[in-house]
Amino acid sequence: MVERKLLQIIGGVTVGALVVVAIVVPCVLLIPEDEPAVEPTTEPTEPPSGDDRPTYTFDDLMGNDYGYSSLYPTWDKTDTTNTHFITRNSAGDIVKRAYTKPDTDVDTLITGTDDLKTSSYAVSADNQFIYYRRNAKQVWRHSYTADFAIYRMSGGAGERVDDKIVGFPMDGMIHHLEWSPTGHALAIVYGWNLWVVKDLEAATPSLYQVTDDGEQNKIYNAIPDWVYEEEMIGSNNVLHWSPDSEQIAFLRTDDTNTPIVEFSMYNEAQYPETVRIAYPKAGTSNPTVTLHAYNLGDDSIKEITIPTWPDTSANPNAILREYYFSRFTWLDENTCMPTWTDRPQTYSVGTACVRDTTSLEWTCTYIEPSTESVTNGWVGSFGPFDIVWMDANTHFTIYARANDVDPTDGRWQIAKVSWSSSSKTWLTKTNFDIVGLYWYDAVNDYLYFEAAAPLPRHRNVYRVKSSAVNDEAPECMSCPLNKDYVDRCGWITTRFNLDGSVAIMNCRGYREPMTAYYTISGGVWSDKATVLYDNQELVDKAAAIKWPRKIYGTFNSTKYSEKPLNYEMYVPADFDNSGNTKYPLLIEVYAGPEFQTVTDVWTRGWSSTHMVSDKNVVVASVDGRNSAFEGYKFMRQAYKQLGQHEPEDQTDFAAWLASQPYIDETLVGLWGWSYGGYTTTHTLGYDAGNTFKCGIAVAPLADWRFYDSMYAERYMGRPQDNDDAYTKASMITAHDLNNFKNVEYTLIHGTADDNVHFQSAAEMEKALVEADVDFDTFFYADQAHSINAGNANKHIYRQLTSRMSHCLERCGTPYPGGC
To answer: In total, how many domains does the chain have?
Structure first.
């Protein structure tokens, strides 16, 4: 849904490019605090005397003065030393650099020009060509249309070649370009069709059209339609080059029978434009998909069929007729593995697909160990997990594994699946969740993976032998970093180089981020990591500001007794918990299924930094039922009953925290965006003003019947099968709307939200008006779900600041200018 990934709202600053290195990111410093076992200590702390440091202002939030460097290298595939990556320098040149000196140019591939310096780019695998993406226009969350300029990198400014390709699109409507993994063939998606350029080195390169039936809201070739992009693929394309660059596997999505959503774009025209999107809502007709492989050698297209596999619903002997494409991976040019799920997403299967080298036809086989079946939840995490190949007959993946004591509970663990013997072996049996696979070192027999460990709020790199069975304590390779750099490397994102001899570690917090690397030889890691970026300048700048302190803890809920709930709390730099100072409390909430709020991640969020530092409030979040990485029984509490536990957990936590001596229990606010806005609204309706004084909901979903089938049905089933739960999950029908008369409620929404449609705000507004409830509402014309086009991002955060500051008695008026 709705911010399905782990996103931090950081004042609207978005950094994006096709090639990303040495990023400077806005951030916020969190002063370390001892972690309490159950609740914040009530022993008095003496606030610093005479602290006249400035606060973190609204202008600071909107600016870029507090940045840091990190390294996410795009490795040079032509480099036999596996030490260089490709990036762009400050002059706009595309250059090579060594990871050991990531700010020093080693070689220049092409010099920058004024009109290309701000364009995204990608270099071909052989470093002979480059394309620049220009004038990109956002379509949905990941998709765009744009112009592309292609250059031969022959020294200096290079030689432009796209204007030599007969028929190359020049109208700004290209959806996607992608280089082949070897050489410099180019896949193009234009007009919802797949095209290729095979001979860029020719005097007049040719453009070949692979498909010809593409049409908006009807047929999508090699790019996803709306629901696949948002809920399953998480990308702007569904094409996969084979390792030898001789084939392209692509998805064809048929939306012919998918219902259409329409809304207006105003755009200062005399008549509004009507936007139409094929959008399957819960219980309605879904798109149908087929998978194909295009052969560049003979221009043939072969279908990679889904085999007949059993329906695990009411009739176990029936044939499954509705399914979703989920994942795809090549082993070699003749072997691949697509993964599919049924429509309820309680069953998934990875199919073994082999190509006949003579006929070039594909045959796909159902292999039982490559399936996952769940009876009281859903498979994977927002879909099945990806796989990593061990050899031609064996792959690794992640499945939910029941624990020995309680078969209804368990963790995500690594399974080794053998095609030849049709068997599955569990490599791991840990007490933490494994969340992703990196790569397999076949020479030294190590599978590297990422885990939410040693605590759920952490991320670290581990490894395990392929011969392991039920390994309860796999080796943590990155854990020493957090011992050497206390509280800076609790959450690590890792990038291995092409031969696995280097691991770049980007430590993302919870204190000041930093970047280091390990060298690896024969499976042996260097004793110590070498620091690339210590970001000392940030440390010094942050020390001059009243940055928040961060406290982690656990809370014993009165609504859920099986385990304590994890929370995090941001407090002012001069925080006094003795009770001599009473602070307003602001709860920031998301609470969607599979989400996690409590993390060891650096942040400069609006509430957690600006409101804490400048408005002197306490901001807190709790991971209630539905949250991930604490065992799937806890996560699946939400199954088929969204909206029912979230308000209980948020209210219980807020009431408990408000009872602490340092909180003013009369000044408690709540806010959230997307699913967080949905939870905010539900919580206010549930609480009826007993705990919360006010709440702000941005882009909330009113009713799951209004949302897309892939997300809504994953957690709720179809409305026709679970009608009562849908009614209880609706913001409009779940609670007595008269309860909103006891709180200050603000509803904010963009009119062009393609994700959570403006319909939700309109229906909620109608219901509140009919119930004679006074409330505050604010709409943003032509703004999508993120409300960040033009000046809208700055504007909405100013509204949030003024309205919440008024509620928490930090200014005299709820409108900008009074604070």
So the answer is: 2
| Residue 366 belongs to some domain of the structure | no
Sign of torsion, CA 453 40 507 673? positive
d(CA 534, CA 525): 21
| Residue 30 three-state SS | coil
pLDDT digits (tens, 9 = 90+) for 375-431: 899 999 999 999 999 999 999 999 999 999 898 999 999 999 999 888 999 999 999
CATH code (residue 580):
3.40.50.1820
Cα Rg of the chain (Å, integer): 27
How many alpha carbons fall within 13 Å on the CB side of residue 535? 31
The CA–CA distances, whole Å, from 489 to 232, 484, 513, 525, 808 equal 30, 9, 8, 18, 34
Token representation of residue 809: 């008695």
Asked if 488 and 584 sit in the same domain, the reply is no
Residues 593, 716, single domain; the answer is: yes
DSSP assignment of 218-238: TEEESS--HHHIIIII-SS--
Looking at this protein, which amino acid is placed at residue 713? E
Please give the backbone phi and psi of residue 568, each rounded to the nearest 5 degrees, phi first.
Answer: -135, 150
For residue range 116-137, what is the model confidence (pLDDT) as tens digits? 877 899 999 999 999 999 999 9
Helix (H, G, I), strand (E, B) or coil at 794: helix
Query: Looking at the structure, do residues 500 and 552 belong to the same domain, yes or no?
Result: no
501/611 same-domain check: no
Q: Tell me whether the omega of the peptide bond preceding residue 454 falls within 30 degrees of 0, making it cis.
A: yes
Place 35 in a pLDDT band, splitting at 50, 70 and 90: very low
Closest to 764 measured CA to CA, from 788, 734, 731: 731
- Here the tokens at position 475 are 């080796």
Strand partners, 250: 239, 292
Token pair belonging to 360:
């070039």
Residues 516, 584, single domain; the answer is no
- Same structural domain for residues 605 and 552? yes
Residue with tokens 């440390």: 539
Tens-place pLDDT, residues 578-608: 999 999 999 999 999 999 999 999 998 899 9
User: Quick one: which of 627, 641, 452 has its CA closest to 557?
Assistant: 627
Evaluate whether residue 398 is within a structural domain: yes
As to burial, measured by CB atoms within 10 angstroms (0-12 exposed, 13-18 middle, 19+ buried), residue 543 is: exposed
Say if 435 falls within a structural domain.
yes
551 and 514 housed in the same domain? no
Q: Are 365 and 382 in contact (CB under 8 A)?
A: no
Confirm if 85 and 21 have CB atoms less than 8 A apart: yes
Instruction: Return the structure tokens found at 632.
Output: 């799937």
The DSSP string of 617-678 is -EEEEEE-TT-SSS-HHHHGGGTT-TTTSHHHHHHHHHHHHHTSTTEEEEEEEEEEETHHHH
Q: What is the CATH number of the domain that holds 485?
A: 2.120.10.30
For residues 51 and 616, the answer to whether their CB atoms sit within 8 Å is no
Whether the bond between 266 and the residue before it is cis, its omega within 30 degrees of 0, is: no
Establish if 558 belongs to a structural domain. yes
Q: How far apart are CA 448 and CA 457, in angstroms?
A: 20
- Segments forming the whole domain that contains residue 507: 385-525
In a shared domain, residues 588 and 510: no
| 3-class DSSP assignment, residue 355 | strand
As given in the structure block, the two tokens for residue 338 are: 């697509």
